[in-house]
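Team,

Forwarding the record for the chain on the shared tracking sheet. I've put the sequence and predicted structure together so nobody has to dig through attachments.
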Amino acid sequence: MKECELKTGYGCTYFIHPKKTDDGVVYWENGNDGYPLVDGRVCDACNVEVLKARISQLNRSAAE
């Protein structure tokens, strides 16, 4: 299992868990892109914070 690069603590288990089909077949194990908060991969829990940061960036750029 890969480590989460962000480790927010908000539900983060510090590891990226593989995504599986209902049958248990792994179809993705690389987590989510952590940009703009980290240059690396993050778990699903930390991805919520990443998405908030991206939306904030979009709002700032739209206001300019």
